[in-house]
Amino acid sequence: MDIRAAELIEKLAGEHALALDEYEYLVSHLDQEARDLLAEFARAAREPIYGHDVFVRGLIEFSNFCKNDCLYCGIRASNMGCKRYRLTREQILSCADTGYELGFRTFVLQSGEDPHFTDERLCAIVRALKEAHPDCAITLSVGERSRESYAALREAGADRYLLRHETASPEHYAKLHPANLSWENRMRCLHDLRDLGFAVGAGFMVGSPFQTSANLARDLAFIQEFQPEMCGIGPFVPHHATPFANEPAGTLEQTLGLLSIIRLIKPNILLPATTALGTIHPKGRELGMEAGANVVMPNLSPGDVRAKYLLYDGKICTGDEAAECRRCLEMRMAGCGYNVVTDRGDPRIA
Ligand code: SAM
Ligand code: FES
Prior knowledge:
Blueprint: H1 3-15, H2 20-27, H3 32-50, E1 53-56, E2 58-63, H4 89-101, E3 106-111, H5 119-132, E4 137-141, H6 147-156, E5 160-162, H7 170-176, H8 183-195, E6 199-206, H9 213-226, E7 230-235, H10 252-265, H11 275-280, H12 284-290, E8 295-296, H13 303-306, H14 322-335, E9 339-341
Parallel strand pairs: 1-8, 1-9, 2-3, 3-4, 4-5, 5-6, 6-7
Helix pairs in contact: 1-2, 1-3, 2-9, 3-10, 4-5, 5-6
This protein binds S-adenosylmethionine and FE2/S2 (inorganic) cluster.
Residues 66, 68-70, 73, 75-76, 112-113, 143 line the site of FE2/S2 (inorganic) cluster (FES).
């Protein structure tokens, strides 16, 4: 292993922070030995806080309509081949009821940016969910909205919000998104969400087109500075009907190395082993746990819509029923020594 990389890993494990140039050096020297050392430190940092507990979130993908045209995303507005669907309020509530029976205490409502879901409609859904399951946390992941909108959703009872920053470099952001979407607005949203009292999840794709080690270093410095409660990272995976159809996917190895680094930056962060990671490798999510992740997000969406929420090609879990998906993950986690717990899964104090 590169000597300076080893020194930087020790420093990160001790101080939970590095300078921008140090992150860049580390990211560009992540060989197998460096990743193994990082994973060892990452597990040691997680252990006293979370032990071998894994938190689950029931993911409800309630609409794949999207007004945006992100270049990487399979449900982008200009993909005419995407069969659009929208769940009704009753269907969403019924998914949550099924999830509750299965032991989920957090529901993540995710969708494209669908103008049908006005504040009034979305707030009514959040209120109904909270009323039906007051002991559960509601997480929203519905993209960029106004501060007023976020305030209304928070007021309606939403607890958490996932909005990946996608990349902390404005010039890289511009290469992944159409001109009407701006990095500044993404950041504005994240700060508004934080101000309004949401537990916030940032995150980014690993190996997205045009991404450099310098970009990843900025992502890590951003996580260090913003200190999000959650961080969703997964490999970029191409979708055949997007401008990035022929771009290579992000790698398992780089994703695992970055998961470990993020665990060390914030030892009590909620860090999912994502579906995208499970898509590029059959044991991706298990390996994610071993690299320092502590969250998994099984799909609770009704079976007939799952394949339509296709952000990238080859997405796993599109055929399973909610109960199967949950059981499968529980078995997978138990297989590598982790236990899925019935818990809201709030951050524990470090
Ligand atoms: N519309 C909401 C938003 O923008 O935050 C939530 C849904 S959006 C589809 C969820 C995440 O999927 C994005 O933040 C992005 O990082 C990820 N994603 C989209 N396309 C992807 C791809 N081709 N490979 C991997 N992840 C992708
Ligand atoms: Fe829908 Fe990007 S294409 S959020």
